[in-house]
Design a protein that fits this description.
The chain has nine helices and five strands. By secondary structure, the protein is α/β, with parallel strands linked by helices. The radius of gyration is 16 Å and the shape is globular. Keywords: ATP-binding, Cytoplasm, Kinase, Nucleotide biosynthesis, Nucleotide-binding, Transferase.
Length: 190
């Protein structure tokens, strides 16, 4: 079983690359956004709890996010591995993920960050926003705010995983195929 955490700022190509990587390595792709949408849409107990925070304009606490993620992982007991997309986002989430994986005899094998210049990513998101319908991709100020949150909360995870020898940075600029090849080189050498 191989477990990979895929990092990158919004627009870095995590979702696109996750599709290729899950097929190539027969991994289960778990996107935090998809997990949240499922729980909210299906009005699960966890979704109801999350909605209270979201309706108040607050971030969903790490503990609740982690519960949703663990529920999702437990739905795939026979997987070859998991590709985590959008989780963990904080040190406390990373510690909770490590503890959970250890409890099932597993671990995070690698964290891979797709790196790209902010200005290039902003243009990508603004382009995506023209067709995606995502409001948060249509406003440059909102995009920059998301990057600020990433820098404050998620970027410290790079140090956390680097200390464990599990952090890899990959150039996120180029063709989809070039980026997939760079990611594959990292994964093939684990």
């Amino acid at each position: 079983m191989i477990n990979i955490v895929l990092f990158g700022k919004p627009g870095a190509g995590k979702g696109t690359q996750a599709e290729f990587l899950k097929e190539k390595y027969n991994l289960t792709h778990i996107s935090t956004g998809d997990v949240f949408r499922f729980n909210l849409k299906n009005d699960t107990d966890l979704g109801k709890q999350a909605r209270v925070y979201m309706d108040a304009g607050d971030l969903v606490p790490d503990e609740l996010t982690t519960k949703m993620l663990i529920d999702e992982v437990n739905k795939h007991p026979d997987t070859n591995g998991i590709l985590f997309d959008g989780y963990p986002r904080t040190i406390s989430q990373a510690e909770a993920l490590d503890a959970f994986l250890e409890s099932i005899g597993s671990k995070v094998d690698a964290t891979v960050a797709l790196e790209a210049d902010d200005e290039i990513l902003i243009q990508r998101l603004l382009e995506r926003g023209k067709t995606s319908g995502r409001i948060d991709d249509q406003d440059e100020d909102k995009i920059r705010n998301r990057y600020q949150e990433y820098n404050e909360k998620t970027a410290p995870l790079m140090g956390y995983y680097n200390e464990q020898g599990k952090f890899y940075a990959v150039n996120g600029i180029g063709t989809i195929q070039e980026i997939t090849e760079r990611l594959s080189t990292v994964i093939d050498n684990l």
